[in-house]
Inverse folding.
């Protein structure tokens, strides 16, 4: 596991990959809960805990009903078990919330995805061959801008990995500061649109554009346009608060240490300003289901903007010698905040995902959202037993049951 991606960014942590409807759902019947697929999901949850996860939950929703499974604990000190109603930090699963607000504004005629960054934030994006006059909002949302990911800045990484994180966990950043951190580094590729490199900086800029266009806070727009209409009772974008509201598991991290026996730290309380529009939100398993289902079913966007959200690009770049290099999770494509993932058995799932210091959260399903799984683990781990592989194992237990590969090395 490379240590090139620090914990500050609320990212869907891609370092592993770089190196190796708002409807009421009935409770599941006993027969649905006892299907072999759900048995395999529970086994995958149990194995994740055996491999070092503090706790992990998964919830399946399909035409048969709803199934919830858990393993491990919410609190290693007290032994408290994980529960379906808990709130947790969702990292880059924040991005589709930001993207949805932007696309709604497009549908209302208040901006265009072809607008340049300079149109709304004149003079902000410049230096190191960055030009806000050539980078569009579309480039920001699908990670094809080439702007350096501020989370990979070496100076910031030194503060937010290892025990140094404990000294900086409450540091606050303005969006402008995060953008400047990204811009003090070289671009990821020459021209906007020439490749895909995951960049939280682009989503910070998108959040700033939302506030410029609306004259209101991003948190308020997410609440007004998404949270309240969908009834997402456990979902919010924190401001300066460092604690999670309401019932929640403790969040744990090895702070990017890759050793199997790496020390684990309680990282529950932390600044959300390091992620903001790119990765600062809090949610629940049920809310992630409801939001992702609404995205997949087209319940939040006009038809034209729905097509934009699911206009996918390959997650990599073409090298000078003509070869292809994956720069994110292999076998994925990316739209605007959403992505597809082809699993080891050939099944393709669609949805959202994110990681932050203290956990991984995903909600994935069929393109029509008729079959969905959402999962959260309240720890981020690296090395041989890493969190991304554990998540993939749980997802594959739902969509690739009976003999599908359970872990990639």
């Amino acid at each position: 596991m490379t240590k090139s991606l620090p914990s500050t960014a609320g990212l869907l942590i891609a370092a592993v990959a770089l190196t190796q409807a708002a409807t009421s759902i009935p409770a599941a019947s006993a027969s649905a809960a006892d299907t072999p697929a759900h048995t395999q999901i529970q086994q995958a949850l149990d194995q994740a805990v055996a491999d070092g996860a503090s706790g992990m939950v998964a919830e399946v929703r399909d035409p048969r009903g709803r199934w919830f499974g858990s393993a491990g604990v919410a609190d290693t000190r007290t032994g408290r078990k994980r529960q379906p109603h808990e709130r947790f930090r969702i990292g880059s699963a924040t991005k589709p919330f930001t993207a949805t607000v932007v696309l709604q504004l497009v549908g209302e005629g208040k901006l265009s995805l072809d607008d340049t960054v300079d149109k709304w934030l004149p003079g902000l994006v410049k230096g190191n061959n960055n030009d806000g006059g050539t980078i569009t909002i579309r480039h920001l949302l699908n990670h094809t801008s080439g702007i350096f990911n501020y989370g990979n800045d070496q100076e910031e990484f030194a503060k937010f990995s290892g025990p140094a994180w404990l000294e900086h966990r409450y540091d606050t950043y303005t969006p402008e500061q995060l953008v400047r951190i990204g811009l003090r580094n070289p671009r990821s590729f020459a021209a906007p649109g020439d490749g895909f490199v995951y960049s939280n900086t682009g989503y910070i800029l998108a959040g700033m554009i939302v506030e410029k266009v609306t004259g209101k806070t991003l948190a308020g727009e997410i609440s007004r346009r998404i949270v309240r209409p969908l009834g997402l009772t456990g979902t919010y974008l924190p401001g300066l608060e460092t604690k999670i509201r309401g019932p929640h598991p403790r969040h744990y991290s090895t702070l990017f240490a890759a050793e199997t026996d790496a020390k684990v730290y309680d990282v529950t309380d932390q600044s959300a300003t390091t992620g903001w529009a790119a990765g600062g939100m809090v949610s629940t398993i049920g809310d992630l289901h409801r939001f992702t289902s609404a995205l997949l079913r087209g319940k939040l966007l006009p038809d034209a903007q729905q097509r934009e959200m699911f206009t996918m690009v390959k997650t990599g770049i073409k090298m000078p010698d003509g070869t292809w290099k994956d720069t994110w999770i292999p076998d994925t494509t990316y739209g605007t905040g959403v992505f597809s993932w082809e699993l080891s058995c050939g099944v393709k799932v669609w949805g959202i995902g994110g990681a932050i210091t203290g956990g991984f959260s995903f909600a994935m399903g069929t393109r029509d959202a008729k079959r969905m799984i959402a999962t959260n683990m309240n720890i981020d781990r690296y090395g041989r037993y890493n969190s991304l592989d554990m998540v993939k194992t749980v997802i594959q237990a739902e969509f690739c049951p009976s003999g599908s590969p359970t872990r990639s090395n």
